């Protein structure tokens, strides 16, 4: 019968040779498992340069942007890639959302308003357009401090979607703050019609 040899530990192996070998092995395994993001980026960029189809080019540029932003920490390359994706296919939603995320993080409010305007043109229906206009109005009101432009965006949202409660409530808040009784008299029936519970 063969008895297994006892495991090596620091007491039986004062040089630490086994532990350094296991550490090297663990590092090698981890290195093999870790994706090489730079190589992936280079491969995507090479594929993007060869791509003729605009929709596929938009997807590839978006993927480069995501990789640059999330894995490589290169926001400059990410923004350039997102820009290229948008130019290839302006309706590609993942890119619109990614650029929006960058603009929010950087506080680039005028750029964000322009992006929302572009996204509004590609919205599926009036309800989606109204939601985008409400987002735009909030940025105009809270970040850019342009109350009149915000009021116009809220108004446009309520025209596109009569039941757009965020727009109607914002218009009511603005009218109350301005003591605009005429606006309130026009708004309250719309609010009553849009509200499902009393």
Low-pLDDT runs of 5+ residues are: none
Helical segment tally? 10
Going by helix content, strand content and strand pairing, the class is mainly alpha
Helix-residue proportion: over 70%
Compute the separation of the termini in Å: 86 Å
Q: For the report, how would you describe the main beta sheet?
A: none
What's the total count of β strands?
A: 0
Residue fraction in strands: under 5%
The count of domains is 2
* Rg from Cα: 28 Å
Shape: elongated
Task: Characterize the structure shown.
27% of the residues are buried. With 198 residues, the chain is mainly α. The protein has 10 helices and no strands. The mean pLDDT is 88. The longest helix is centred in the N-terminal third of the chain and has 19 residues. 76% of the residues lie in helices and 0% in strands. The protein folds into 2 domains: 70 residues, no CATH class; 92 residues. Helix 5 runs antiparallel to helix 6 and helix 7 packs antiparallel against helix 8. It starts with 16 loop residues before the first helix and ends with a helix. The radius of gyration is 28 Å and the shape is elongated.
């Amino acid at each position: 019968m063969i008895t297994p040899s006892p495991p090596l530990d620091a007491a039986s192996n004062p040089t630490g040779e086994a532990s350094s070998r296991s550490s090297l092995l663990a590092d090698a395994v981890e290195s093999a498992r870790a994706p090489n993001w730079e190589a992936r980026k280079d491969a995507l960029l090479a594929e993007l340069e060869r791509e003729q189809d605009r929709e596929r080019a938009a997807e590839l540029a978006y993927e480069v942007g995501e990789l640059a932003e999330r894995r490589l920490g290169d926001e400059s390359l990410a923004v350039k890639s997102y820009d290229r994706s948008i130019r290839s296919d302006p309706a590609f939603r993942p890119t619109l959302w990614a650029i929006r995320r960058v603009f929010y993080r950087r506080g680039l409010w005028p750029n964000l308003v322009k992006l929302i305007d572009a996204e509004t043109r590609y919205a599926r229906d009036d309800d989606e357009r109204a939601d985008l206009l409400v987002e735009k109005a909030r940025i105009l009101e809270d970040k850019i401090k342009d109350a009149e432009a915000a009021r116009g965006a809220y108004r446009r949202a309520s025209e596109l979607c009569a039941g757009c409660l965020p727009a109607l409530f914002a218009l009511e808040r603005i009218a109350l703050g301005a003591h605009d009784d005429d606006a309130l008299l026009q708004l309250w029936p719309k609010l009553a019609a849009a509200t499902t519970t009393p």
